[in-house]
Amino acid sequence: METPATGSEESGAAEGPAEAAMGREDGGCEGLWELPVERCVRRAECGRCRRPRKVCLCPFFPVHPLKVSTCLYIIQHPAEESRVLRTVPLLAACLPGDKCKVLIGRRFGEDRYPELAAVCRNSSTLILYPGAEAANLEDVALIFPSPSTIIIIDGTWSQAKDIFYKNSLFQLPKQVQLKTSISSQYVIRTQPTNTCLSTLECAAIALAIMEKNDGIRETILRPLQALCSFQLQHGAQIHHSKEHLLKNGLYDKPMPKNKRKLRRMELLVNNVKI
């Protein structure tokens, strides 16, 4: 009984166009497998700042951690942990380990974080988060006991808002804000407004106020300035705030369809505090 041709050698079928093309491709790859494989070598990193040695930031850190009485608790959104150009590690490198504690997460319950709960219940604790209920830190520092603790939330504005309002512990400390008109020096990351500051900058200004020492701010800002300078030298672009881009007609992304987000952008253009 005859069987249908299957394209095998036994069938005796002629080589088709597809097989011929495959043969040509195989022929074109001859010798490639014998080429030496170039090994991927990681750039040497600094053991302290974890940056490539060519752009090491250690020379810009203080020789010894700053002596401060104020303790910082940085509440960091998990998304910030994976960012390459973070400011919290720079801040931590400037301070003693017991004066800058970083907690990562979205939800902070009393059972899981008893130490944080005790800190939030302490009358000498402040939480830095702007709003209608927030007092100016400059005014509070005049009458607040020392040493004190300041809680700072590290994340985008939407992430910080979510953490602040959805954790009851953070409603316990006195709420404060910074009264400043300076622009952020963290120019390699886009900020919502011209006066929005990075976590490091907020901490630097807050510590300078609480410790009554402006030199603290200058010392903590130094590695941030160096980081931005290195990045700009290696191809990064200066990021203007979203407020600046909108006001000058430079915002090139599609406008949001969400009415709430669109309203926020309108407020930015009209200089309304949000």
Could you please describe the fold and organization of this structure?
With 274 residues, the protein is of the alpha/beta class. It folds into two domains: 53-239, no CATH class; 242-273, no CATH class. It has ten helices and six strands; from the N terminus they run H-E-H-H-E-H-E-E-H-E-H-E-H-H-H-H. It has helices at 17-28, 78-81, 88-94, 114-121, 137-143, 157-165, 199-211, 214-233, 242-247, 259-269; strands at 71-76, 100-104, 125-128, 135-136, 149-154, 174-177. It has a six-stranded parallel β-sheet, sandwiched between helices. Helix 7 runs antiparallel to helix 8 (214-233). The radius of gyration is 28 Å and the shape is globular. The chain starts with 16 loop residues before the first helix and ends in a 5-residue tail after the last helix. Residues 1-13 have low confidence and may be disordered. Residues 1-21 have a biased composition (Low complexity). One of its GO terms (molecular function) is tRNA-uridine aminocarboxypropyltransferase activity.
